Amino acid sequence: MTKTKFIVCFLITSGIVAFFLINQQQATLKVESHIRHGQHAESSGVTSMDVKYVNGIVHLLLGKQEDGQQEIWYQSSPDQGTTWSKAVNVTIHSDVPAKFKRGNDARLAIQGDNIVAVWVTKVEGAPHGAGPMIVMRSTNRGQHWQLATMPADWQGAHGFFAMDGNDNAINLVWLDSREQTIKGSQGLRFSQTVDGGLNWSENLTLDNITCACCWNTASFADNGLFYVLYRDKQPSDMAIGRVDPSLNWQRLSSVGEFNWDFEGCPHIGGGLAIDSETQQFHSTISTGQPDNVGLYYLNSDDKGQTWSSPMPLGNKSAIHSDIGVSNDGTVIAVWDQLSENGLQVFYSKSDDHGQTWSEFQSLSDIKLNASHPQVIAAQDQTLILWTESGDQNLSRMQTKILVNDD
Amino acid sequence: MINSIRCTAILLFLALNLIACSEPQPINAFVKGSFAQIQQSYINSPHMIVFWGQNCAYCMKEFTFFENALSHTNTVKLITVATDPFLSTDIINQLHQDSNLDQVEQWVFSESVKEKLYFDVSKNWRGELPFIIFVNKDRRVTQHLGMLKEIELVQWIKQQDL
Questions:
Q1: What phi and psi, each to the nearest 5 degrees, are found at residue A103?
Q2: How many other C-beta atoms lie within 10 A of the C-beta of residue A315?
Q3: Which of A135, A156, A254, A291 has its CA 20 to 30 A from that of A317?
Q4: The pTM is what?
């Protein structure tokens, strides 16, 4: 009898324990499922995007526009885009309306625990509705944000930001027309902060005649030199230059000498990636020069002084591009090009330092309008991000992770 | 008395005509197929279709010399297309009035994905502005990306009247 009671008690206790264990597991699964669903929802309404990969962390800045409200959100990923932290609203304490769109995105940069974000403010009635930049900073890895000091010492409209950071500084470039030399041009300006956005250096004009409407790209090399890729004027070819640690600027070269003489608005910048092992530069640039319309890849073995012959990527309608290089030297180029439904995102990769490229592969759904891809190339996988919209016209961020030989 | 009534009627008629003429043109919705529709409408006339953008300084500069260029012709038609999707009628009207172009045929991109319309107009047009498509008296089509020089425009227009 005692033995039977013991068995019954054991079974009941086991049942209760099993019930709680199963329930706990289900609860865990529900939470995980919820996070995934929530993160997907958080990527809707996206009309601005910037991403940086620093010390194994992917930092993401999204500009969202829903119900007429513009907000900036920050997230990070410790596993190259597989999972994301809870999104933090950077603009929650800001009552200054933001203005952003793809091609003139809000940008971010990282210096240690400091993160700095910059975007354009909206001013009703101003030309293009654009006002001065606004800068926010976080000193605790994006958890909380506060207003930073204004980097610009001219209070007109700013835009087309590019920014990067290293252990010592965050450097920012942008376009403004404080001294419009020729019609339809702006100037490329520069400022630096060494204290995470508390103070900024006096503005430098890197080039006083540049394209007025093309995005800029900037990147620190390991030697502390800060490289800027931008669209020049007269001719409207892409150009690269560098700012040294003493804040001296030197224009190095044209990236793709097409001699494209264009009095107009191309709205097309380029991509730049620096191989940390070999110091080889990789770039994607675009031209509208009538005999050579399209997107091209070039590389430089002498840190931007000279460039290889342009190698076409995509078809003649390829527009917005980016490029990344992983620690093992694999180079990934991403771009969008026109289709009947708008734009479609493609990629190609090179395992021989840009000498040859794989067959171009589509990444996005051809029924959607997918544009402005960006790439983060890590050791074992590559994260590709873009924005897309369908018939409902609600723009959202989309990501794809390429693993090994994917 | 009769003469006076007649004069008044003629004056009224002329005034109404003047008012009608100064009314801005209606703005048409440019969607997939509109480009072919425009070309079909002007199949027997030399014409130029000008694609412009509100934030394109070069487009605004071009607008300033269209009036003078068109004064050299009675046959060439100008059609303008705003490429900012659903740009407000007030802005379009104002920009055309400022350049005395309120009587030209006007269209506005009416598709949220404007790249679909780029593709419909030209497979390789990536949205660069200004962009002009010329159709000459022999129906030959040429394209021009970037701002035109006024002298080149006048030259092309004059050739159509020869």
A1: 100, -20
A2: 16
A3: A254
A4: 0.87
